[in-house]
Specification:
alpha+beta, Beta-Lactamase, 5-stranded antiparallel beta sheet
């Protein structure tokens, strides 16, 4: 470069300027003749990429983009090409200016049907917060090429979506509280989540083991039947008994489904196991409590169905209601005899006012109770015999001659309270 000093004449300065203009013309001519587009931008605010302003452009850039330089020089990039911001071009240009490092990238202009053009851009930093962007067209796409490009982009997106979905499902399996394992076609465990390993007390050593190591002998039959259903229908859900590494067994709820390849060939099975020991314990306790309640209710019903009420030291009353079957007849006799014996009663009043139907079975039960009572030295008074019941007893040919009978309970009690000599 020519060095200036105070003694430099005006003629020399003028000659120097002429040489600079000649050199500038040469370089500008070179730039204008380049087969690549060149655009120069000035970033007025280093912190704001919207201030990227076009200050120069060569004719090739106009030819490649179809945008005339006249009317665009002096305007910002967002004003001349607002669609480029969606592709991140202003941001990339600003990064080149700030970092001082060149960058290379591609820009594709397309609509829903075809790609109009595609460029490779080389952005290089220039002094004064400027940059030069050189670009050239990669190639002209036709419909077939665009379809291939679109298909490739779609496949790449599908791959990304599937990878994201796979990561999600893998995380779900890893975090699941149930034991989940995958067994190949030979019955070998090839995958086991943390809950599965903890459930059976194994670590990584469970990988490669046969699935049979986790099944207790008493659960083998149930699981075998389930596996047959998996092979036939593709899935099975049921209960089994499994075994831990230390030999202890526990009940499990199992869900199993088969895995096939794209040809439908069997590849293996996925098993989901849940320890139901606590559930079984709760069910047993609930069943035991339920049985206890049933037993208590039956005891209460028995007491109500054969009540024995002491009236005096020597007299008891048993009022009967409802129907009497063979089982209840035995209970009535047992209660009556036990009460007479325990209370040393000499008179037992059996009131059948509450019994609406008397058949041979009821009549025979009453006669047997009376005979058994006499064997204990006591007397039975039968009360509450209604006219229709009396008619039934006669038609059945039941002989009650050796049993004291009264139509009402009150009459029976009055008789029982009389001295024995006045009966």
């Amino acid at each position: 470069m020519h060095k200036m000093n105070d003694s430099t004449s005006i003629d020399e300065l003028q000659q120097y300027i002429i040489r600079l203009e000649q050199q500038l013309a040469v370089y500008r001519g070179i730039v204008n003749q380049l087969p690549v587009g060149v655009r120069v931008y000035h970033m007025e605010d280093i912190n704001d990429d919207t201030t990227l302003r076009l200050i120069d452009a060569n004719p090739t850039s106009e030819h490649l983009t179809g945008v005339a330089s006249v009317g665009t020089i002096g305007r910002t990039l967002d004003e001349t090409s607002p669609d480029l911001r969606a592709q991140g071009i202003p941001q990339l240009y600003a990064s080149v200016v700030r970092s001082g490092s060149p960058a290379t990238f591609e820009v594709i202009n397309a609509d829903d049907e075809t790609i109009e053009n595609a460029f490779v851009i080389h952005a290089v930093p220039l002094p004064g917060n400027c940059l030069a962007a050189t670009f050239e067209k990669l190639f002209q796409y036709d419909q077939a090429e665009y379809s291939a490009y679109a298909l490739n982009a779609e496949l790449q997106q599908q791959m990304l979506d599937q990878e994201a979905e796979l990561r999600l499902y893998k995380l779900i399996v890893e975090r699941a509280n149930d034991g989940i394992s995958f067994t190949d076609a030979t019955g070998t465990i090839v995958s086991s989540n943390p809950a599965h390993r903890a459930l059976y007390g194994y670590g990584d050593e469970i990988i490669g083991m046969p699935i049979g190591v986790t099944v207790a002998p008493e659960g083998a039959r149930m699981l075998g039947a389930g596996m047959q259903q998996v092979m036939q229908k593709g899935n099975w859900r049921g209960e089994s008994v499994n075994r831990r590494k230390d030999g202890t067994t526990f009940p499990v709820e199992v869900s199993v489904f088969s895995i096939q390849d794209s040809q439908g060939a069997f590849q293996g099975m996925v098993g989901i196991a849940r320890d139901i020991s606590q559930r079984k314990k709760n069910e047993a306790e609930r069943q035991q409590l339920q049985q206890h309640i049933i037993d208590a209710q039956q005891a209460a019903i028995r007491e109500l169905s054969r009540p024995l009420l002491p009236i005096t030291d020597e007299m008891v009353i048993m009022p009967l209601i409802g129907t009497i079957d063979s089982k209840r007849a035995i209970q009535v006799m047992e209660t009556l005899l036990e009460g007479i014996a325990s209370q040393h009663a000499s008179i037992a009043i059996v009131d059948i006012t509450g019994i609406k139907v008397v058949d041979t079975q009821v009549a025979q039960a009453l006669i047997q109770a009376a005979h058994a009572t006499r064997l204990l030295g006591a007397t039975v008074i039968l009360t509450g015999i209604q006219p229709q019941i009396a008619q039934t007893l006669v038609s059945l040919g039941i002989n009650l001659d050796d049993i004291v009978t009264y139509g009402t309970l009150q009459a029976g009690i009055r008789q029982a309270l009389r001295p024995k000599g006045r009966w």
